[in-house]
Amino acid sequence: MDLIQRILENRFSVTAVILFGIGFANLMLQYNLVKKVVGFNIMDSAVFLLLASQGYIEGAMPPIVAEGAVEATAYINPIPSGLVLTGIVVSVSVSAFSLALIQRIYHKYGTVDLRELVMRTEKEED
Amino acid sequence: MRPFVENFPFFSIFLVMVTGILLSVVRSGRLAMRISVAVALIAAVLSAQVLAYTVGGDLSFTYVMGKYAAPLGNEIKAGPLQAILALTFCVGMAISLLGGSRDLERDVLPRKQNLYFVMSNLTLASLLALTYTNDLFTGYVFIEISTIAACALVMARDTGPNMIATIRYLFLSLMGSGLFLIGVAILYSVTGHLLMPQIHDEFRLLAATGQYALPLTVSVGLITVGLGVKSAMFPFHLWLPDAHGSATTASSAILSGLVLKGYIVLMLTLMVRVFTLELVLKTRINDVLLVAGVLGMVMGSVRAIQQTHIKRMLAYSSVAQIGYIFMGFGLGTEVGVVASCLHILVHACSKPMLFCCAGKLGDAAGHHKNLKNLRGSAYRSPLAGVGFTVGALSMIGIPLLGGFTSKLYFASASLHTSDRTAVILLVLAVSTVLNALYYVPAVLAIWSPGSEEKLAGLPPMEPDWGFRVSTLVSIAAIFALGILYDPAINIIEAGIRLM
Fold first, then answer.
1. A20 neighbourhood in chain B, CB within 8 Å
2. Which among B461, B485, B481, B474 has a CA at the least distance from the CA of B389?
């Protein structure tokens, strides 16, 4: 029971770790290039989940200063949200770049399977 | 009022980055190339000013970006080590572009040439930012920028194998930056800071009380391995030979000589400024670095011996040289880190030149890259032959050349450890022999008389002033590091102290 209790308390971190593992395994082990990109996105989402959950404070307000100043402790921590935002920008641009590259590879070779591509390039070089 | 020179680190980053963006509207590739070289040299002058200022005053300074002071804002921190690295990066970039300019004109489509220089400038800007930044998350952002820019540099030569090399490079890089990012996230959630000095304070406090020992160790490990993957630490080097071997000359030079160093410099900054060497020793991460470095030194050279393609050989040699640097970190002592820094400088001076000379020798032999076909090519382009020979001898570690000095410092650094001296000296000796085993045959091949009829049919070599200047500057730098190394060592030692 104690274990379940702890998992529930840290549910965001646990989910993040599981997602990171899934994404990482996909990025490393998949041969399909598109699936690799998907794996990379899952991995990054896991990090964003971890970061965002670290900055969340139960019952606190969004960090927008409305009329009438409120104590800083009444807001959630805005820095992790900012980091997540930056991270999303980075991950979107990297995804776009890799998808564009995969598209070109597909046009040239007609496949997105890494094993086959490596085999073909070795033949080309011989 | 603080001295104006303290603005220069920011100016150099900003200038290079803005130039990169503006070059996207410059139509002429040749003009873009001239602007890029000029801007790299201006940034080099700015870095030299910072170097003179920090060395002269024996100080390092923090530059607050924007109006928010720590712990809220973003910061740059510059000392002698950062300045000399930035200077080397800027000069190395100019050398690579000048030396590889002829190949660039041939390998890159004419209407896309200006875009190549957009990427080279973004690479340089991110390298400078990685060197100067005092903020972990800024480091992450610039890691990603340099990844994308470096991939584009590999892809500039638009062939099938190159695209495959790029995609493999990209995916391994993404793996590395993913590991780095989650390491940063854990570190942030434990310490609550992203600025390095603040993390350092918290880190020291937590280490003293023993709280959060496991998360901190995990995060140090993740950050180190993540940066290691990106800088081709031994088991993760598989992407490097393809990417560096098949790209155009200037790209290979930039990637091997400079981009790898950007990540290593960030790792160095973290190890010295944030985690401190003594605490790193406790986590035993440095043992991992030592083993990876030693294996890389041997295996990189063994694989290099098996290559017949001259640029792939140089690429595997980079794996070995990166191994030296990690071995220095792995010693976990200040002397080891100093030796590694010296090796970073030496490698950044000689590898770009080796790649440029290899490209030129290939041209001289009629666009061949195979060692067999390069016979006699040095006679058709003597300067490239001399440059390649000097670079190769420096890599082997012949006295009077830069490579000898750094190996000497590695050897003497190993004496400061109690239990590792024998292993390190042995590996240094073995790897020197291995280096000689592939560099000497290559040098012999280019200087041995080739078959007359094969070379006679080739058009005469056109004079290439950019290449001449870049090679002469590199040769001078290698000799300077080999003979007058005292100033460089003093700067590095002061830099580590003032980190």
1. 178, 182
2. B474
